[in-house]
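Can you please make up a protein's amino acid sequence together with its fold in token form to help me picture the idea?
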Amino acid sequence: MITSSPLQPGRPRGVPGFDRSFLALLGPSLLGLAFVALAGRPTDADQPASLNAFSQTYCLDCHNESDAAGGLNLGNSDFSQLTANDLDGRQHWEQILIRLQTRQMPPPDAERPEESEYQRVSTAIARRLDQLHRQQPRIPNVDTIRRLTRTEYANVIGDLLDIQIDATQWLPKDESSHGFDNITVGELSPALIHRYVSAAEAVSRLAVGRQGGTATGWTIRLPADLTQEYHLSPLPLGTRGGLNLKHAFPETGTYRVSVRLTRDRDEKVEGLYRTHELDILIDNKRRHRFQVEKPKGRNDFTQVDANLNTDLHVTAGMHDLGVTFVHQGDSLLEIKRKPFEASYNRHRHPRQQPAIFEVTVYGPLSPGDQQTTDGSQPAATAIAKQPSTHFSSTGSRRKIFTAIPKDDSIESQQAAAETNFRNLLFKAYRRPIDDADLAVPMRLFQEALKPTVTSSDATVTAAPAQSINGTPLWQQQFERAIERGLASILVNPNFFLKIESAASDDKPAPISNFELASRLSFFLWSSGPDQRLLELAEAGKLSDRQQLAAEAKRMLADPRSEALVNNFAAQWLYLRNVDAVKPDLRLFPDFDENLRRSMRQETEWLFRHVMQNNLPVTSLIDSEFTFLNQRLATHYEIPGVVGSHFRQVQLPADSPRGGLLRHASILAVTSYSTRTSPTIRGNWILENLLGTPPPPPPPNVPTIKENQPGTATTFREQLAQHRQNEACAGCHRLMDPIGFALDHYDAIGRWRAFNLDSTIDSQGTLPDGNEVDGVADLEHALLHNPQPFVRCLVEKLLTYGLGRGVDHRDAADVRKIVQQAASTGYRFEDLITGIVTSQPFGYRTKESLH
């Protein structure tokens, strides 16, 4: 069995007798909407009179007409008079329910009810509010017009045209709101529209693969601290280092691939004690092998990589480009001699073997610019008469040219174009297509076709048949005309906007089947509906809840559900922030790019595993396994993990690794460059696991210095002094105790027993007086009553899936989803199907979002 570091993380998993109530442990300010189970027979507390008596006993001393503490006056608030039409009153009591469920009312220094009475009254209020919601539902609206994010745009292009693009070269960064970047995407400036036009022109040319474009260069530079001694998946075994990436070749043609090697401070390429072999691969097949040798005679290292370039013929579209060295037997010598160190990776001296600095791709080359294997120029291709018609086949061209002209007549070309555009429009616009939709691309197609057309007495024929490189001129013109029509589709608002019909009533009404298909696909795939979804929508079958739930399960099993890992989980858990982590290399010299990437992948693998295997979502918090490669296992001091690929590793009971709170990715993004931050870590848990973020700090609050003078000698003491400021005390009393429970992990997620000369103290006293000690205590507290965590996850998924924030109007539906999932242990699929069949997901009203 693979074992971990002997250091203990605190109380081990599964300690018998650990039965303290989650509510009692985490206290009033940490639970947020800790929804209590609503099952069970009614009690006398269900009666409004009993609730009014509760208010008289515990609330009115502070919340009355003359002394409305916190702006809350219960003196004129009678629960017995609450009706379904009283929307303001329902909002009022939802807020009261939150305060009761989080034990924020009454305050600690006032008379407080027993725990059983808290639960009894909270249950009664929740049941009544749910009943009123069923009588008069109110849901916030989703904006009727929202543009695709950059990620969604690239994914839709990929599904529609079978090409992968980098949308960042055209579209601006999407701003985040409510924690996700698909919320505030409604504005369209003239400059942004111009970007969409540029993107449409470039993408249509790339997809059609029409020849004759201008050569363009792309350079990919590897991070300076990226270790290149290991095999890089998915490159062939027996190779080491380099890069493997997907690259979009704009058209079929010849491209020049050039490689530059890493140099030391003296501009020397080190490690050339022997000849090394460097492979260029396209789609994991070797297309060229270089011999890299030490310069002969004088040490002129400028010439070492001067000839590391080769011309390769590549078809249009997306291909895997790999550049890597052939593995040599003694390459592990350097790793054993010197472990991972960022500064060492940047400027090793002496280096045992060369490394790649950057790779450049340039093309497509004109015939005169191409090189043959002997370095000469190839002969020009002559223009031929009467060539045979040939439509080359790539993934994107198969998507576009579902019909090809029978001959070179205008009628045949127009008929083929109409068929092609109809097929593309249905999927591009994600709704039924009419003649008006077809008119625009057909008009542009016909205009582009005119230069080849000549008129006679009664007929219109194409230009005389000629060809270049074997392609008839009429076919080239046909493809160019298709390209222009395709560009008009991609620049149409029906493509790059998500458009829904506005509701005409204040009462929730179901959205159309096509709108529901789009909501579902953009939620689970960050892309448009596939053919099956569109056909079900056309048949009106998505209105069936069972059919909708079945489709959600099908889509979760599809590889495109990886979007939930890359987009939802990456934003929910702050994994995108891992790229910005910059630890002080003087304090953390072993942090490098390999470790950074491995940190993020561990968390992605855990979320992916829970999703793909339909595990309880609580497995994200308390897991007896994790996913590691050799680099991360070395960081964690876990032996027995060899190789760069990730694999599931079972952990012993006393391992400091496992769930999210033990992942280096989470621990690093919640730290400073030089030290940990209990405050940031506590805030991360409140916001992302409990859904109860504290308010933003007041202005002009002084920060805590690294070495603050005075009597405080530890950071814990410095924070205690900081909490003496009343403006800071309220929030820090919530965040700091939770954050201190993770203090055994340093700023890059390593387990530690000491911080400098001080023993780590991971104890924390929570607002209600209960204590936790270490990460295991905190995990047990989170999962003793998992509903707050599950409720938070449902709210995050609903926010991401709808593209809007949730509020009190969603509370009843969120409670319902959580309660339904409880019967199966909160499995991932049940949360997803509960969301997609919920009223907020499938309905809209005339009511505004705000």
